[in-house]
Amino acid sequence: MKMKGAQILVECLKREGVEVLFGYPGGANLPIYDALYDAPLKHILVRHEQGAAHMADGFARATGKVGVCLATSGPGATNLVTGIATAFMDSVPIVAITGQVRSYLIGNDAFQEADVCGITRPITKHNFLVKNVNDLARTIREAFYIAGTGKPGPVLVDIPVDISQAEIEFEWPEKIEIRGYKPQRFMEGHKGQIDKAAKLIVESKRTVVYVGGGAIMSQAAQEVRELVDLIGVPVTTTCMALGIYPEDKPLSLRMLGMHGAASTNYAVQYCDLLVNIGARFDDRVTGKVETFSPKSKKIHIDIDPASIGKSVAVDVPIVGDVKKVLRELIKEIKALHKKPDYSEWWDQIHEWQKKHPLSYSMNGEKLKPQYVLEVLSDLTKGECLMTTDVGQHQMWACQFYRWTRPRTYITSGGLGTMGYGLPAAIGAQFGRPDELVICLSGDGSFVMNIQELATAVDHKLPIKSIIINNFYLGMVRQWQEMFYKKRFSYSAIRPPDFAKVAQGFGARGATITKAEQVRPTLEKILNDKECWVVDCICDEEEKVFPIIPPGKAIDEMILDMA
Amino acid sequence: MAKHILSVLVENKFGVLARISGLIAGRGFNIDSLAVGETEDPTASRMTIVVDGDDKTVEQVKKQLNRLIDVITVQDLTREEHLDRELIMCKVTVTPKTRPELVEIAQTLKAEVADVGVKTLTILLVGDQAKVKTLLELVKPYGIKEIVRTGRIALSRDGAGG
User: Does A85 touch chain B (CB under 8 A)?
Assistant: First the structure.
């Protein structure tokens, strides 16, 4: 059957199992929108293309499926860039489809032309410019395959108008073969290395397991929990893996790194074996890398060979899919019939925990952001699906909410993108319609993509946005106070009346200024079916502690300002 | 710091060179030279990249190159028996008096005198790095006007075992 390029695209999306896509029409993708008009696909009209990319990303993180976004050429496509880079840094599988000017006009500075493949080359796992309509179906298949396999990541497909309009006989490529991309080669870990790791684990006395986002991507929560419980080992996670092991259990040391608990960072620094599961020794975790956990042997499980040995030298590298490697590792450990004895190690950790608990004080009249998170954690029993923006609120959420399930803390960890939270919440809610989705934000971040409230209201999404409002770019202010002699250069920001803005968009709004309002207000809105924005006016001087100052070792944390 | 010769087989598609050079620049790697051309299979090209760096850096370059979808294989030829050659053209100042001396240098090095002018003479040489270096040292005193080099290209040798 003869079909136009745009119809072929829609047919391919259907066959890839796409149910929802987030996009914005314009000149160069009009043929695609024409094909979408009567297609059995749910298209969500966003208010800014950056929102579309973050929604696809939030959808992908919440579900584990590939998210899809769509934009026109030129400014439409460049507006996706921050969202694509966000997905790239956190290895999130999305496919971005952009319209392009007619293929014979490419390079002529045509209206709304931008070299989108050139622009996105360093921030995509791969990208394609479709120059021939006969390549379109195979390209779409390859795009989904590349995005969702191996170390996942964003893939962009740029489709010129004339390719969307060209008519050919549609043929679905049953098999695809990319000779330079064989992710299955890196699935199974090396048996000898796994044996070595198992022996090291049962022989070590001061072990810490450190889990990252790779374990989430690999759907390995069950295996992580089994390993940790099998040997009773202390387990810490990066902010990308919060909830992979329930934080309300005693083996959990919760988050490590720049704003991790002091006791957790001490444990990482003074352990004799560090088992890295799907994390990448990021600089926010290692601090000054030369002084990082100096006495420990290190095991590193990662699907990406390039992430092993990149910043920290490891003793037992295992390239492979976390889930598969862990299954083998657990089998090997069981076969050794030897349980490591961590009793002294736990005594030491408990002593650190007692000495340096995560805390804050309720001094003064002003509302404390940590308290808002504690109440939220309590009311939702640690079971909401939360997206965040970037800054202090993002770290307080890591510290003061008890994470119990994987894929429930959705945040821009690598790129640190302000404006991510609200669109990501919308994407997540479409992916998991039955979840309670909360967007935790700050007064700086929330206005960066506030326009997507209109999208949320359009679709009657019951998303609850909770804004930690301190009239400052809080994290910037904190660094200026601590490291720039209190020279608060352009960090004070006058926020709008968020409750009124919310009402203007057709959502509900509330403002909280006192601690005693927190519980009743949150109780009320969490049980409501409407889209809410709750503006929490908080103490602007509150800081995130502990903090590892830039360039310092992880045991050189500043615990508080006293 | 040592020089590593990477032989990289890539898809012969538009944009591949940009992907490779972008990756190298974006990750701050230093390269000495990069030469590229079609292979016996017209859908693939072979790039010879000479990288300057310690083992850890070169390991990262190899791994990052391998991550690119359009890269088919990456081979570090420095670790095995290989042939490597570079083509250089060197335009040197001449006078009637020095011309015979330069022609003799070219002949001794089995290079070609590719062009003879009134004031210059161009020597073309294909050789390994030692030979290229010798040529440059020998002609330097006469005054080098211009140089152009292809960068090294390399291929693994068939060892005695085949």
Answer: no
Tens-digit pLDDT profile for residues A171-205: 999 999 999 999 988 889 999 999 999 999 999 99
ipTM of the complex: 0.90
Considering only residues 110 to 149 of chain A, which have any Cβ-Cβ distance to chain B shorter than 8 Å? 117-118, 121-122, 125-126, 129, 146
What is the predicted pLDDT for the residue at B162? Answer: 44
Beta-bridge partners for B83: B155
User: Measured between CB atoms, does A304 come within 8 Å of chain B?
Assistant: yes
Domains A2-181 and A185-355 are alike in CATH topology = yes
| Torsional sign, CA A544, A549, A555, A557 | negative
CATH top class, domain A185-355: alpha beta
Subunit contact B60:A306, Cβ cutoff 8 A:
yes
CATH class of A2-181: alpha beta
Task: Return the CATH architecture of domain A369-537.
Answer: 3-Layer(aba) Sandwich (3.40)
In whole angstroms, give the CA distance from residue B35 to residue A8.
39
Mean pLDDT of A22-39: 97
Q: In b/e form, how buried is each residue of A236-266, taking b as 16+ CB within 10 angstroms? A: bbbbbbbbbbbbeeebbbbbbbbbbbbbbbb
Q: For chain A, what percent of residues have pLDDT higher than 70?
A: 100
The reply to whether residue A121 touches residue B60, judged by beta carbons under 8 angstroms, is no
Q: What is the mean pLDDT of residues B139-156?
A: 96
Of B18, B63, B71, the CB nearest to A121: B18
* Of B15, B63, B70, Cβ closest to residue A306: B63
- CATH 3.30.70.1150 for domain B83-156, yes or no, is yes
Return residue ranges of chain B for CATH 3.30.70.1150.
83-156
Q: Kindly report, residue by residue over A522-532, the tens digit of the pLDDT.
A: 999 999 999 99
Tell me, yes or no, if B69 comes closer than 8 A to chain A by beta carbon: yes
CB contact under 8 A, A180 and B69: yes
What per-residue string of b and e applies to A75-104 under the rule 16 or more CB within 10 Å gives b? ebbbbbbbbbbbbbbbbbbbbbbbbbbbbe
**What is the model's pLDDT at position A22?**
98
pTM of the model: 0.96
SS3 sequence, chain B?
Answer: CEEEEEEEEEECCCCHHHHHHHHHHHCCCEEEEEEEEECCCCCEEEEEEEEEECHHHHHHHHHHHHHCCCEEEEEEHHHCCEEEEEEEEEEEECCCCCHHHHHHHHHHCCCEEEEECCCEEEEEEEECHHHHHHHHHHHHHHCEEEEEECCCEEEECCCCCC
Question: What tens digit of pLDDT does each residue of A418-453 get?
Answer: 999 999 999 999 999 999 999 999 999 999 999 999
H helices, E strands: number in chain A? 21, 20
What does the alpha-carbon distance between residue A81 and residue A96 come to, in Å, rounded to a whole number? 10
Query: What is the CATH topology of the domain spanning B2-79?
Result: Alpha-Beta Plaits (3.30.70)
- Listed in order, the ranges of chain B carrying CATH 3.30.70.260 are 2-79
- Give the domain ranges of chain A: 2-181, 185-355, 369-537
Q: Residue A165: name the closest of A128, A126, A130, A140 by CA.
A: A130
